[in-house]
Amino acid sequence: MRYVLSLLLAACVAFGADSAEEAFNRGLAAHNRGDLQEAIKAFTEAIKIDPNLAEAYNNRGVAYKNLGDTSKAIADYTQAIKIDPNYADAYVNRGNAYANLGDKNKAIADYTQAIKIDPDYEVAYYNRAIVYKELGDTSKAITDYTQAIKIDPKYVSAYVNRGLAYADLGNKSKAITDFTEAIKIDPKSVNAYLNRGFAFANFGDHKKAIADYTQAIKLDQIFAQAYINRGFAYSKLNDYKNAMQDAQKACKLGNCELLQMFEGAEKAFNRGLSAYKNGNLQEAIKQYTQAIEINPYAANLYYNRGCAYYDIGDYASALSDLTLAITIEPNYAAAYNNRGRAYASLGYQDKAIADFTQAIKIEPTNTYAYNNRGLAYNNLGDKNKAIADYTQAIKFDPNFAMAYYNRGTAYISSSDYGKAISDLSQAIKIDPNYADAYNNRGFAYGSLGDGKNATKDARKACELGSCGLFQRMQKNKLLLD
Predict the structure, then answer these.
(1) What phi and psi, each to the nearest 5 degrees, are found at residue 416?
(2) Residue 43 burial (CB < 10 Å; 0-12/13-18/19+)?
(3) What is the C-alpha separation between 330 and 337, in angstroms, rounded?
């Protein structure tokens, strides 16, 4: 964190000799043009002429500090204070030097003394707040930033830092308010946009985060951290094309961390997808795990591993991974849908229904969520709600064979065999190799006394590899030639 230095920029004090004043002014001029050695030389000359010139010690201390010689800087600030015990600027500057040396208690003591001398010294409050924050006392830091803002209502850095402090306390709303106020005062504050974007991201609003990072980049096109943050936000929205572009841009600017993470995770993820498509679920899980180790913040990695766990029957691990995906991306409808399936497989139908409902809330046309919620209602014995959900799934996707099958099966449970045959026939029309649909339609035909069609469907189902109905009919001598 940057501390604000207090440098006397004008010769507005009464000097004991014209030559001391001239030397002091030469020092100020040299310092202002960046010639620190010449500044030190001039301030030293002024001190030789007038050993009680506190301002010369203070400003020579600033020059030493800017050259990295903190010990000499402290010695000069201390001499300035000895000459003038009410020299608030010297206390602030010595406090800064102590802070940079890590002696935070001495820094706080000096800032406090400066405030005692000048209660309206906003820089002293601001710098003390920084040290309090570094010591972990965020509440005191906020109090000091607030006082600095009270003294100077347009203190942009104080708003930004107070916003960061609020964010650390988990109060993202107040953090965003402070960053917004900083932007209002200074529309070109890159740090305010960057930090507000980060706060939006923590709220899960990645679109607003991207907008703020984009504005930060517009203001500073070589700001690598803004590209990294925006790339990360894009990845949260599963926009990996833009995420990769930002990671590549950041790398060109000298920070390749995100690019390396994305590339390593992407390679492992693609190996996982390939293994999954080939039916090698254990290998898929291994590769997804490797991708997660590289990039533990990508919701889709947990989602895919969770689906693989589900497919091998490890529902508890699936539940854990899908929950992590939802934690990272709260609007991940597919993750809610598949977590609902895991809950249902573990026997928690009410939790399953809650997840399917949330998936539908996020994506009102999510046919899989309607179908799966219908199954959960069916497992609870609520056939009417089950049928209503299957119907909704069919409405959004008229070619959803499974929804027709499930609704047909629900009609069988309600002994409405005519409607069951109609739905199962539609499922077969969409998928002519749907063995279970033939089995259930055969059962419905048999229940209506249509042995001919029942036999036909039982034979077809057996040809497709599902011989349960055929064997039962054969055992009970119900098959018709």
Answers:
(1) -95, 75
(2) buried
(3) 13
Domain annotation for the chain: domains and CATH numbers: 1-117 (1.25.40.10), 400-481 (1.25.40.10)
47-95: per-residue pLDDT in tens?
A: 999 999 999 999 999 999 999 999 999 999 999 999 999 999 999 999 9
pLDDT tens digits for range 372-397 = 999 999 999 999 999 999 999 999 99
Contact 475, 469 (CB under 8 A): no
Q: CA torsion sign, 159 to 163 to 164 to 169?
A: positive
SS3 call for 360: helix
Alpha-helical (H) ranges within 312-332 are: 315-328
Rounded CA-CA distance 445/435 in Å is: 15
Q: Position of tokens 């000096």?
A: 110
**Using one digit for the tens of pLDDT, what is the confidence trace for 240-281?**
899 999 999 999 999 999 999 999 999 999 999 999 999 999
| Residues 249, 200: Cα–Cα separation, whole Å | 22
For residue 301, what are its two tokens? Answer: 């990695």
DSSP 394: H
Question: Rounded to whole angstroms, how far apart are CA atoms 279 and 141?
Answer: 56
Contact 179, 199 (CB under 8 A): yes
